[in-house]
Design a protein that fits this description.
Elements lengths: L1 H6 L23 H10 L8 E3 L2 H10 L3 E4 L13 E3 L7 H5 L7
Parallel strand pairs: 1-2, 2-3
């Protein structure tokens, strides 16, 4: 992740970044996603996880976060808990992502 974010000069585009070095347990444990939500000071249910792995989908589910599955590595039918399945990011717009969230006080 460091190679990509720093190499492409994208790190400044993110308010926070969590990677495997920040957590004790990897996916499918939800620690990565919960730590990021905590750092951003947002409720897990107010996050959307974009995930292309089945372990990541499970981690997001365990964290209580809706998932938009990217079917780059797996078939759409393999993602059992995703609220949305797309081939790539071009199929997304802000309204579609916002509709993944279930707002509750």
């Amino acid at each position: 992740m460091t190679f990509i974010l720093d190499g492409l000069r994208l790190r400044g585009s993110f308010d926070s970044v969590v990677d495997g070095g920040d957590v004790k347990k990897g996916k499918p444990d939800p620690e990565t996603f919960l730590l990021l939500a905590d750092r951003l000071k947002v409720r897990p249910r107010d996050c959307v996880v974009f995930e292309d792995s089945l372990l990541g989908e499970e981690a997001a589910r365990r964290a209580g976060m809706p998932v938009a599955a990217l079917t780059t590595s797996h078939e759409a039918s393999e993602f059992r808990h995703a609220r949305l399945r797309v081939r790539d990011f071009r199929a997304l717009d802000l309204r579609t992502v916002r509709d993944l969230l279930v707002y509750a006080p």
